[in-house]
Every structure is written in C-alpha cells, then in structure tokens.
Amino acid sequence: STEPLRHDEL
Amino acid sequence: MNIFRLTGDLSHLAAIIILLLKIWKTRSCAGISGKSQILFALVFTTRYLDLLTSYISLYNTFMKVVYIGCAYATVYLIYMKFKATYDGNHDTFRAEFLVVPVGGLSFLVNHDFTPLEFLLVIMYVSYDMALCGPGSNCSHCFQILWTFSIYLESVAILPQLFMISKTGEAETITTHYLFFLGLYRALYLINWIWRFYFEGFFDLIAIVAGVVQTILYCDFFYLYVTKVVYSERLPL
After folding, report:
1. B5 vs A5: CB contact, 8 Å cut-off?
2. Which of B4, B59, B60 best tests the A interface by mutation, with the highest count of A CBs <10 A?
3. B60 in contact with chain A, both atoms CB, cutoff 8 A
C-alpha cells in the first residue's frame, strides 16, 4: 500500500 | 487524546518556551548547547513534513507549527542574534556521531521496510513500487524521515548533557528546561501504556526510542530533585 502511515502523536 | 499525552505535549511546550524566554530575557545563551537545539530543529522538520500531506486535527497542526517555529527561533537566537554569548568552546559533542548512525538505523529499522525488503527496493527488485518516481506520494521517504526524527530525538539532548558535565554546572533555569523536557518523555511513556490498554495502540519504534530517551534523563532527574531544590545551581 502507498497510503502513508498516519502518526497522530507529536 | 488522554491527559498524559496532553500534559506531555504541554510540558514539552513549556520546556521550549522556558528556553526561548531565558535566552531572550538574559540576552544570552551561555550554557546552552547550540548543537542540541540544531538537532531538535532537525527532529521537528523531519517529523512534521506530514503537515504537507495529512491533516489530523487543529490541535495537532497548531502544536507542530509552534514547535517548529520555536525550534528555529531558538537556533536563530543562539547562532545569530546572541552569537557572542554562545559558549562554542564547551559545546564540543560531535553531533555527526549521532546523526550518521541514527540515519543508518532509520533506513534499517522502520515501519515500511525490513532491512531485506529495503535492499530489494533499492536494487529495483521491488514488488509494487520504487522509492520515488511518478505516482509516488513520498510516503516511504516521509516514513523514513519520521523514523529518523524519532531516533534522533531520543539522543538529541546528549550535546546539552555533555556540555553541562564538561563545565560542571548549569544555571537553574537550564535545569528547569531539562526537567520539563524529561517530564514530557516520562508522561509519553504513561500515555503509551494508557493507549495500549484502552486503544490497542502500540508503536514499537516510538516506544523503544522513548524509553531510551527517558533513561537518558534519569541521572539528571535525580540531581534535579536532590540538588536544584536546595541551591541556585546544579553542582555535579
């Protein structure tokens, strides 16, 4: 998958 | 969002603001490692590139912009505006000894590729995409840069701690800065325990790097609690 991983933390 | 993550973020923000205000009010960056601040600016830049590609929340975007802005403002104050007060002779930690291994590690251990897969990708024996090119959304590059930032953040404070150990002392306000920075890491550890139990969230890269980073502050925490409370400076 080319969907970027979402990092929700700062 | 849980209370530990929120207070962790606010503690991080407090540390950054304390340092900026200290330099601004005293018109001096004596005792501050410019190298650590450059590394933190690099950390925020490489981690928050996703500002360009994905929106998470207003809070998330706002904090990222503030962190990046403050990091560059701090570097500007140290290396430009108050350059004369910068104690470069004592800021001798070799930052490349951190950046180069961390860069290598972020290629080898990240969420996108195992080392073998990465080898296949760079040899163009890859399965469904090359790293860059038409149709690429930069996600792999961003992922590696995110990993790089996580690893780098865990060791970015070392030039500052090295500088303090070299000069043998730190101003109280500098110790407050380090305390809030360490507190932020400790709160994030609790946040991950919380998220693991209540959300099933588990990010091994962030957790391992976070544990390493928190351990680096332990010696300082001990000195902070036992010494700074009673005296003006941090004797070592």
Report:
1. no
2. B60
3. yes
Q: What is the DSSP letter of B132?
A: S
CA dihedral over B45, B8, B95, B21, signed as positive or negative: positive
Terminal-residue alpha carbon distance, chain A: 24
- Rounded CA-CA distance B235/B228 in Å is 9
Whether residues A2 and B136 touch (CB distance < 8 A) is answered with yes
> Can you spell out the DSSP letters for B8-42?
HHHHHHHHHHHHHHHHHHHT--TT--HHHHHHHHH
Two tokens at B27?
Answer: 């018109």
Query: Quick count: other Cβ atoms within 10 Å of Cβ B55?
Result: 10
Please give the Cα distance from B43 to B23 (Å, whole number): 21
DSSP letter at A6 equals P
Higher pLDDT, B59 or B111: B59
* pLDDT reported for residue B220: 87
Single-letter residue type at B175: T
> Which tens digits make up the pLDDT trace of B6-31?
999 999 999 999 999 999 999 999 99
pLDDT in tens, B164-195: 988 888 898 999 999 999 999 999 999 999 99
H-only helix segments in B77-229: 96-108, 115-122, 139-155, 158-167, 172-199, 204-223
Residue B204 identity (one-letter amino acid): L
